[in-house]
Amino acid sequence: MTPHIELSLAKARKHFIAGRLDKADSLLRAVLTDMPDCTEALEGLALVATKKGAYPRALHALERLIAIHPQLAEAHYGKGCVLGMMGRFDDELAAYQSAIALQPNFAQAYVNMGVALRDLHRFDEALQQFASAIDIDPNYAAARTNRAQTNLLLGHFSAGWSEYEWRWLDGGTPHGFDPQKQWTGEQPIAGKTVLAHAEQGMGDTLQFVRYVEQLAREGARVVLRVQSALLPLLREYPGTAQVIGENDAVPDFDWHCPLLSLPLAFKTDATNIPAAIPYLSADPQQIAHWREIVGGATRRPRVGIAWAGLRTPSEHGNRSMRLAELAPLLATNAHFVSLQKDVPHVDRPLLRKLDSLLDVSHRLRTFADTAALISQLDLVISVDTSVAHLAGGLGAPVWIALLFTPDWRWQMKRTDSPWYPHARLFRQSVRGDWKDVIDRLTRGVEEWSELGQVKSRTESRVVPIVS
Q1: Residue 422: CB partners within 8 Å, gap ≥ 6?
Q2: Which three-class secondary structure string do you get for the chain?
Q3: What is the pLDDT of residues 311-342, one digit of tens each?
Q4: What is the pTM of this model?
Q5: From CA 54, how far away is CA 48, in angstroms rounded?
Q6: Would you say 207 and 408 are in contact if contact means Cβ atoms under 8 Å apart?
Q7: I need a labelling partner for 137 at 20 to 30 A (CA). Which of 87, 106, 188, 345 fits?
Q8: Gap between the Cα atoms of 237 and 75, Å rounded
Q9: How far is CA 467 from CA 112, 364, 416, 417, 423, in A?
Q10: Which neighbouring-strand residues pair with 336?
C-alpha cells in the first residue's frame, strides 16, 4: 500500500467520523480505482453506503470483499446486517451462519442471528442464540438486553426485568447517578427522598411514570425528573413532592431509580401491573381552549390520528406510515384531527390538501396541549408513539397500530394491553405491510360511525371494541 493510498484512507476515516459521508465515499472510490482489492477501502465503502441507506451499494462492496477474502467472518457478518436492512431475512440468517462457521466465538453474530429469528417469531431459537453469545462472553450487554426484551415480549417478566438492567451497558445513555444509590425495592424508603428519573423516550416516561404513586405509598418523598417537554403535563403529578426538568438542578436525595427499573423493584408480573387509569390528566383551561377549536354538536365521531413515529434510514422496521396510506380510513364518516406535532416533510403537501384531516400541528406546543386536545376526541388512532401512551394514560380509547414484531411492551398475539385497559392493538399480519392494519382500522371506524355512539363532551366515552 502506497503512502498516497494510506493518506486517502486516513482522510476517509476522518470524514466518516465527522459525518461527511460524500467526501469519504469519493476518497474510498478513488482508492479502489488505484487498488481494486483494497480490503480497508471496501469495508469503508460498505460502512458509508450503509450509513447513507444505500443498501444495494453496501451489499455489492461486501460481496466484492468476500470474493477476495472468503474466510473473513466480519465480511459475512456485515453482509448479514445489510441483508436484514434490505428485508432479505433468509439470506440474512445464512450470512450470520457463515460468519459463525468461520469464527465460532463470534458473539455479535449470534446476537444478530437471535434478533433476526425473533423478528421472524422463532422465539425459542432466538433465545438459544442469545444464550450462545452469553456462553462466549457472560458480560456481553447486547446479548443480555436482547434476551431481556425477548422475554418481556413473551410475557416472561421476572427474567426480563432482571436482565433488562444490562441496558446501561448496551449503548444506553448513562444516567450519571451512583449505581450504589439505586433503589432496588429492598431498601426501606419511608421518610426518604427518592429521585425517580426519566430515561429513553417520551413514551417510556408516560408509560412508567405511573409507578411514582407506588413510591409515595411506600412513604417516600418523591422527586420526579422528566424530559423538559413533559414538564407542563407532569408538573403537578400525584404523589410527587417536586417535579423537575432534565436541565434543572437535582436536589439532594437518599435513593434514585430510573423509571424503567421500577417494574423490577416492585416485582411486576402479569398479575400486578399498575393499571389504575387515568393516571394522567389535562389542564381544564386548556380543555376549554380546545373545545372552542374542535367543539360543536355532531353525531360523527371525532378521531385523532398520529401516523408517524421515529423513522431513520437504518430502521427497516420503522413505526411509521405514510399519510397517503391512510386514505381509506380518512374516507370514513368521522371528523379526523391530526395529533402529529412534527409532520414528516414528505407528508406536508398532502396534509395541506386534505379537507378530511384537521391540521393543528402549529398549536401543539407541548404534551399538555395534546392531552387537552385528546380530551375532546372520541378515539385516538396511533402507531406506537408517545401519543399512544399519552392517550392510554389519560384513559382515552386508543387503537394502536403495531409492527409484525412490536416493541416488547405490547407482547405477542393479544389485542388488548394490561398497561392500558382502554387500548386495542392492531398488529401487522405481514411484516412491513400496513395495508391489513389500515383495512381493519377502517372497518372499525365505519362500524362505530354506523352505531352513532358519540360521547357528549361532558359524559364518559362510549366506544365499541373492534379488533
Answers
A1: 277, 392, 395, 396, 397, 398, 463
A2: CCHHHHHHHHHHHHHHHCCCHHHHHHHHHHHHHHCCCCHHHHHHHHHHHHHCCCHHHHHHHHHHHHHHCCCCHHHHHHHHHHHHHCCCHHHHHHHHHHHHHHCCCCHHHHHHHHHHHHHCCCHHHHHHHHHHHHHHCCCCHHHHHHHHHHHHHCCCHHHHHHHHHHHHHCCCCCCCCCHHHECCCCCCCCCCEEEEECCCCHHHHHHHHHHHHHHHHCCCEEEEEECHHHHHHHCCCCCEEEEEECCCCCCCCCEEEEHHHHHHHCCCCCCCCCCCCCCCCCCHHHHHHHHHHHCCCCCCCEEEEECECCCCCCCCCCCECCHHHHHHHHCCCCEEEECCCCCCHHHHHHHHHCCCEECCHHHCCCHHHHHHHHCCCCEEEEECCHHHHHHHHHCCCEEEEECCCCCHHHCCCCCCCCCCCCEEEEECCCCCCCHHHHHHHHHHHHHHHHHCCCCCCCCCCCCCCCC
A3: 544 444 578 999 999 999 999 989 999 999 99
A4: 0.90
A5: 8
A6: no
A7: 87
A8: 51
A9: 33, 29, 9, 12, 10
A10: 303, 357
Grouped pLDDT means (10 residues each) for the chain, 467 residues: 86 92 92 90 94 95 96 96 93 97 98 96 98 97 97 96 92 83 96 96 96 96 96 96 96 97 96 94 92 75 90 57 95 93 92 92 93 95 96 97 95 96 96 95 89 49 39
